[in-house]
Amino acid sequence: MSETMSTNEEKKKPPLNGRRAIPSNNSNEEENEVPEIEAFGLIPRGFNPKDYLRVVDIHMFKEPHEINKQQHHTDKYYNPKLIVRRGQIFQIQIDFNRPYKPETDQFWLEYLIGRYPQQNKGTYIPILVGNMLKPGEWGAKITHKENNSVRLSIMSSATCIIGKFRLYVAVWTPFGILRTQRNSATDTYILFNPWCQQDAVYMDDEKEKEEYVLNDVGIVFHGNINDIKLRSWSYGQFEEDILDACLFLMDKAELELSGRGNPIKICRVASAVINSRDDNGVIAGSWDNTYTYGVAPSAWTGSVDILLEYYSSKQPVRYGQCWVFAGVFNTFLRCLGIPARLITNYCSAHDNNANLQLDFFLDDEGKLDTKLTKDSVWNYHCWNEAWMTRPDLPVGFGGWQVVDGTPQETSDGMYRCGPASVQAIKHGHVCFQFDAPFVYAEVNSDIVFSRRQKNGIQVIEKIDTTHVGQLIVTKEVGGDGMMEITEEYKFQEGSEEERLALETAVMYGVKKQSTQDVYQPQTDVDMDFQVQKAVLGSDFKVTITFRSRSRNYYTATAYLSGNIVFYTGVAKREFKKHSFSAKLEPSSSSAFDVVIKASEYLSDLLDQASFHFFVTAQINETGKILAMQKATVLEIPALRIKTQGELVAGKVMSVTVEFTNPLKQTLENVTLRLEGPGVLRTMKKEFRQIPANSTLIWEVKTIPRQPGSRKLIASLDSNALRHVYGELNIQVQKP
């Protein structure tokens, strides 16, 4: 670009540092001034720009029903500007003041992004009009000429920066270059293109692209391994202002514009900016069951409210837990065109020192020592997978990559995680960036129970090698069912391949302590326990079973500890202690019931109605310990959603939400939320109280925007009851 530009800029430039000639260009929002006349020297007195070819109008074909948005799968974005995907042809039309004469007239296009556009950084892109287009490279050719208009086909580069570009048309005259004025109506968003073979995020399966890029609702699997629960989440990546909010996140993370064509870099910085730790990012996490001055994590029904609040306030939104971080991250990835899915890992290890071993310390009576025990098993943990090639790794490690926005541990000094290749985790090749050892530990750690004897020596009592990472799931393609993907992360438990993958991981530096030599378990008695399924507010029982295969008579001293826990496996308090002794007959089974009363747990119950039970038994004759632990979740009643009348796009429809309070107490300060992408923006209603066993009914009128199959999602939140959801699939007809 020329001298005149830089002089306008001088006044506004931030101070330079000694290392760069140009300040860093890391904001899509900022712009530079582009001169409308760029003179080659002194302009002669008789020069009149009107004598030359002049642009009168530019047509972007940017309506949802027009060719560009249709061909580029961007017709669902609620955004008036042109949105295209990189590496694929799009059309524009330029109207001049007279017919264009290729022999004498010369014009070209200029796409600019950021405040300091430079050609070598891909932030200033001049495009000359030629005769042919090369796939995946910038170019333009005229496809049609009529009167004063020309129709252009433009090809963008398959590695182009993702963001909002400004378009200028430049015309050459003997005395200088004439440019169109700055016109925001011609701004063009360029996104990743999973439909383009040269794009790093190319995905060949059409149904998978429909799901992982274009589906704007999803399912979060939660609960626990013995009682899987699911709820819908509205990603809303096409809703108004969401695309701008997602681009703002990259500005917030100060990702250099020239790096924004690379999905690896984008995922890595996004995993840091999704959480508020160390960079004032989007969501503040809170795991302590107090959510003053904010929204309880369980009350959100989707990502749109969170992203829009952050985009306008620029302050972290309170509060989130893992599925909220993952839901918002998924919206960000799909919105930019990176195929993404939300994953749930049941029994997820949070290993504070990444040694592939979770240490649970028992005191000399066999009770859990909460002061010493720092590691925890989360009932479940949600993260995301993003689909891309990994040219920075050896061949074979592309495809799904783990990215995690929940702040658990720091990576290179910031709370972020990934992208880590799922394939590398499965085979134990944890030397490949980023954060593979941490993810490997989340799905493969052993739980080691050790007990401190009276003389102070720690003795290992039990090693559980199968509890962690038992089940890894995501929503199925094209439906709301669950798809198990455990075998993408690990080989069959106990197989030869699994052992080899573990040894590979250890060789590449995952710390593993050897414990086998010390530990001889009691082999002729098995202990197990089952927790009865129960609805919130009712009594239930825990049944402990011993099976003896010995010829000897044994007696056991057993202890059950019931704890109310956060879903992260961290105990809030022990609400049930029960000791009993058991006689074990030779070669037989015996069962013992412990009743848990509602009155024992209701006063302290947390968000997700999660309990964690430890049962520890000592065989008196041998001194050996049997230890077992399980998490369980109560059934929480659902919201019922109904619609009345016909459902037609553009016509008023009525939605009712109903809920019956199951508790023996009045619910106070109840908030209902209802949303449905393409049908209604999030609505909220507060109720002072709902008496015990009474039913609340809320009616809402709305006008659905888009026809097709849609989903309504509702949540109820109150201090005494959380994680109450409801949903309804509806079919909106064309008008």
UniProtKB/TrEMBL annotation:
Keyword Protein transport: no
Cellular location(s): Cytoplasm; Secreted
Function in brief: Factor XIII is activated by thrombin and calcium ion to a transglutaminase that catalyzes the formation of gamma-glutamyl-epsilon-lysine cross-links between fibrin chains, thus stabilizing the fibrin clot. Also cross-link alpha-2-plasmin inhibitor, or fibronectin, to the alpha chains of fibrin.
Family: Belongs to the transglutaminase superfamily. Transglutaminase family.
Binding site for Ca(2+): 444, 446, 493, 498
SMART domains xref list: TGc (SM00460)
Keywords: Acetylation, Acyltransferase, Blood coagulation, Calcium, Cytoplasm, Hemostasis, Metal-binding, Secreted, Transferase, Zymogen
UniProt record, GO biological process: blood coagulation, fibrin clot formation
The encoding gene: F13a1
Cofactor(s), names only, from the UniProt record: Ca(2+)
Active site, UniProt feature: 322, 381, 404
SUPFAM superfamilies: Cysteine proteinases (SSF54001), E set domains (SSF81296), Transglutaminase, two C-terminal domains (SSF49309)
Record-given protein name: Coagulation factor XIII A chain
